[in-house]
Amino acid sequence: MENFIAFDLVSPETLIFSDEVGLIIVPGEDGDIGVLPGHSKVISSLRPGRVLVYGKDKNLLKSFFVSGGFVEINPNKCIVLGEEVFVISDLNKDNLKKQLDNIEKDKSEKKLEEHNKINLMIKAIDAEYYLKI
Amino acid sequence: MPSLKDLKIQINSVGSTKKITSAMKMVAASKLRRSQEKAEASRPYSSRLEEMLFSLSKSSLSGEGVIKLLTGSGKKENYLIIPVTADRGLCGGFNSSINRDTAKYIRQLEKDGKSVKLITIGKKSRDFFNRIMKDKIEESFFDLGSKGVNYDIALKISDKIQNLFFENKFDVCILIYNKFISAITQEVAHQQIIPLEFKENKKDLSQESKDISIYTYEPDEESILKNLLPKNVSIQIFKILLESNAGEQGARMAAMDNATRNAGEMIDNLTLKYNRTRQAFITKELIEIISGAESV
Fold it and tell me: What ipTM does this complex have?
């Protein structure tokens, strides 16, 4: 069998990532899903979290943060439809913390969602940091 | 006969108008390219979403809540019409054709005894419907074009629509927008987004349905559908906004191209007139001199 799987990451605005990769880990609604070449067919919704993309020799290529969305998995192709997609290395913890402070003043329900999202983003940056050492 | 000075002023003013229109044409052309690229970039997402949705819609779920976005509320009494226009004019018949078509459609619906509400998108439709049917407007969205369309705006609009829908304010939602056919042609199109309609051709679908039946759904079909349906509304709106934006730039480009050409023609005519008048003056003066000399 092939040792790679085609992977597309799209946001509503644009195609963010498209390449052949070795392994993808996506944050499925019921738990993380590791997608290797030849995975069975699955459609799942996503919870906010990290999408990790590994190369053919299982080295970490890129990591993204998605705020939700869907994944469609086929044996030779995996497509993630992200709601909002960020490249984790582009995120800045200090800026996010500032945003968090701003939101904290407002306690409406909508803001609560936003609050959770940013908190998760900060966690994702931390996790990324530990992954590297 | 106008004096030479008047003609000169007229020629100059037409000349500066021409400069403006040709500059606007250039700007519209580059914006058109950009919005076309954007529309292109959003296509993979919306087509995937539609495929997923189609396969799920066949599992024939019925129920309350979000599923209603797919099945409708069972009535067809109250309509929500959303005309999508631009914020700015100077783009030929782009805005007026939408406004005209919408007004006509509303009158038709009212004749059939339906009640109609409006959400306007773009300043031009807001202004138009504020004048003629202010009481029907639920909300107006504008200022979409200045920084280019982004998904957040589509999300805001779709939130508003869904709130209204779940408050049972309407049964059917139709967007009226300019469909982008080519850089110089747009066509007024109606798209119904609630309840959902599928437009794909049948051959593709039967192929698709065989493939799709073996998917595992996680957590399950119903909860995915519940996520997917509201998202689909915002994606459809986003797609339409992008298309309308590209159409606007195309229409503006064509309109400005025409205006530039007209200004050029006008300048030619005026220059001819200017030269003729000048010659007439010279001739007149010569005749005066000669006849003066003769009489001496």
Answer: 0.74
